[in-house]
Every structure is written in C-alpha cells, then in structure tokens.
Amino acid sequence: MAKSFKVTLKRSLIGCNQTQRETIRCLGLRKRHHSADVKDTPANRGQIMKVQHLVDVEVVG
Asked: Where are the domains of the chain?
C-alpha cells in the first residue's frame, strides 16, 4: 500500500502570492482547517515544500 499524506491548511492565504494560492488549490485545499489526502509522489512533495509554512502534514499509511 502506498504512503499518503493528510494535509491541513492552517494559515490564511491573505498576503500569499498567486503561485502559492494555486499550489494550495492543486493540493485540494479550499479554506482554513480543511484537510485533504494526497498521494506520496515527488510532485506532491514539491508542492507541500512550497507551502510548508501554511500547512500541517501527517503521514498516513
């Protein structure tokens, strides 16, 4: 079974640039305290690293 991450948006997107907003949307997050399950791929890891100051990440599986 492949690993995945549970990503939760903890900070507001006010003051963030457009690329960070698009990255949050691509991770499947919509508003604060919303969580999404994301597969463990190099592309998703890069997206999480780009917005690591806005999200909390938990390893699932």
From this structure: 4-60
Per-residue pLDDT tens over the stretch 15-41: 999 999 999 999 999 999 999 999 999
Helix-helix angle 18-26:42-50, to 10 degrees: 140
CA angle 30, 34, 35 (to 5 degrees): 110
CATH entry 3.30.1390.20 includes domain 4-60 = yes
Query: Measured in Å, how far apart are the chain's first and last C-alpha atoms?
Result: 7
Q: What is the pTM of this model?
A: 0.90
CB-based contacts of 16: which residues, under 8 Å, 6+ apart?
24, 54
CB neighbours (10 Å) of residue 51? 21
